[in-house]
């Protein structure tokens, strides 16, 4: 297992980022975003994942996570593996997907370059885990994560972005069962 998948202290929260191969803008369609959200919620319920914050952009994800049971690297591995297979199948079966052949070709191209894959690769392999050992770093990563859609021009205020935990921090309920950072 790559050092990039290791989390040193399972008791601490971590900021992670991961992106699609070649930074392909997959998450422009609701069906693919919903697969990701459903998978995160499954990991919360069944695997003990704790999500403190998250944002799903068109081609990457930022999260602040912890764990109750399983190792974070195992949960993340399973999340990425499941979403990879499920989203690729959804792309294949989506008659409305105008970029189908191109995306599948790119995923296959990435998969062929990686000896760990048998066919397609959807996610880049690294997660860039950063241990959040104090409140200053935690606040910085929380703001960075929530302001990502603002910086990219999708919304004016973080809480207006639907695929993010920013709304949870305003007192409303979002798409993922988030544990708020106090």
From TrEMBL:
SMART domains per record: Y1_Tnp
Signal peptide extent: none
A biological process from GO: DNA transposition
One Pfam family of this chain: Y1_Tnp
Organism of derivation: Plebeiibacterium sediminum
Name this polypeptide is given: Transposase
Domain of life: Bacteria
PANTHER family linked: REP-ASSOCIATED TYROSINE TRANSPOSASE
GO molecular function, one term: sequence-specific DNA binding
Transposase IS200-like domain mapped to chain residues: 10-121
